[in-house]
Design a protein that fits this description.
homodimer, 298 residues, alpha/beta, TIM Barrel, 8-stranded parallel beta barrel, 11 helices
Chain lengths: 298, 298
């Protein structure tokens, strides 16, 4: 694998789990820095009920102000048709839907069964088609559920295939609680890639147990070439007890650079975005590379 | 790789970099818990000048009191003949010597050139032979030096071979400052394994930049089967600015267990040792698994 695409989810998956709610201006400053770093895919907001996710309450106002840059795609998370209508009226050109590989997690996270969430996704996809809006699919808890424990890889594969069949251009196979080891990556990717092509698969690792980079390394051997990460390692999931943030974009970039894998992203500039974010949220973010002495991995 | 040997370096590499100096009784409690966890190779102390490493000043008294357990080997770090004489008189059955792959680091760390350190090692080996004491060799800064930057892999290979030729039974190829990525593991192991057999190589990763587990994963592909780690991720190096602790034994065990690799070590019991250590040193240790919700990796 000589080139990898990074989907920066800090402004959404990251910020929605920070206690501090950022102003629109600070969100824009953060996102502008991410785009300057060369990140071409940025999940910028979610259009969800502000009662549940107050951090994202200003998505409607934020979206039209996102910095326009050649080749940068902003995605918006939408849980249902109502969120999709909001995202469309805000001008979103790409959205992300989500379901889970664990029934219990689906109910706790969105108060829907997996079957019901697929019905909601079908509505979103129908709305997207008329507007030529691309739809990404997240599949949560693919490597373990905080309520059900281990999740069957065959079930993950089946649901991934269904998301693509429904019209998603890519499915982000997600380790919501950071439970996966490279052994689980083997198990899940063996099943998933038997049903869907690698170029339609992204991986989304939380770093709860420090396994994320090892898991990425293993996934590279399967020719998966799209990875989600968050600047500074911000993030987590309020409905997944103990889940830590996404793998840090800086740490991922450091590893990939050291392996000669191209990303087109500047580690130094992502670190600038993270330091800005730290100054705003008022806490040290978990990225290790961000807080280590400068070192050129190549 | 179906079986991996862990060399627990927490009582030495870990404790020598903790600000809090443990009492002999607490050291023994820590080590007893590590042995109970199934760790068979434990680096228990170093016989160095207490002026430089006050944390190890009681090695002479500690050593005879180490818990005797079937199959458990305790190693002691010795920098020179004087340290070796102290270690022998304390009853050490295995020692570890060290040199560096970087000239500047060697001078800053032990105030000797690499050539001078090999002379010191030869004296240690000579003393060991008469007593049938096994000698392990550490080679520091194999993946980068805080003063010189990148280190030539051919030089690492040459020095690793010299350590073995001198009488070391194993060489621990060390990433003292946690600079390595899997790309560097390829680079260094390609060179080292062209000169020495894999079964005589151990790897020693510090986790400064969060790369250690990915590096272990890559090294497993080369059939390297001995890895150094420290319970809780304690440790570091006072002479390597910014260097963080060793990779945490718990995190390593979690990954290996998830891959079906046997170690014979109980993660839960290592975590008990780490929690005891945390209670004594009064700080949270960096292991991620230690501080995550319980999860069975298999």
């Amino acid at each position: 694998m000589r080139r990898v695409q990074i989907v920066e989810v800090g402004p959404r998956d990251g910020l929605q789990n920070e206690a501090k709610v950022l102003s629109i201006e600070d969100k824009l400053r953060f996102i502008e820095r991410l785009a300057q770093a060369g990140l071409k895919r940025i999940e910028a907001a979610s259009f969800v009920n502000p009662k549940w996710v107050p951090q994202m309450a200003d998505a409607q106002k934020l979206y039209p102000r996102l910095p326009k840059r050649e080749g940068v795609r902003y995605s918006a998370l939408v849980p249902n048709a109502r969120g999709m209508e909001d995202a469309l009226s805000a001008g979103a050109g790409e959205v992300a839907v989500f379901t889970a590989a664990s029934e219990t997690f689906s109910r706790k996270n969105v108060n829907m069964s997996i079957q019901e969430s697929f019905a909601a996704i079908a509505q979103v996809v129908a709305l997207a088609k008329g507007k030529h809006v691309a739809v990404r699919g997240y599949l949560s808890t693919c490597f373990g559920c905080p309520y059900e424990g281990r999740v069957d890889a065959g079930r993950v594969a089946e649901l991934a295939q269904r998301l693509l069949a429904l019209g998603c251009f890519e499915v982000s196979v997600s380790d919501t609680i950071g439970a996966a080891t490279p052994g689980d990556v083997d198990r899940v990717l063996d099943a998933v890639l038997a049903r869907v092509p690698a170029e339609k698969v992204a991986l989304h690792f939380h770093d709860t147990r420090g396994m994320a980079l090892a898991n990425v390394l293993r996934a590279l051997e399967y020719d998966v070439a799209v990875f989600d990460s968050a600047a500074g390692g911000a993030g987590g999931c309020p409905f997944a007890p103990g889940a830590a943030g996404n793998v840090a974009t800086e740490d991922l970039l450091f590893m990939l650079a050291g392996m000669g894998v191209e990303t087109g992203v500047s580690l130094d500039k992502v670190a600038e975005a993270s330091r800005f974010l730290e100054s705003v949220v008022g806490r040290q973010l978990p990225s290790r590379v961000l807080h280590s002495p400068a070192w050129s991995p190549r």
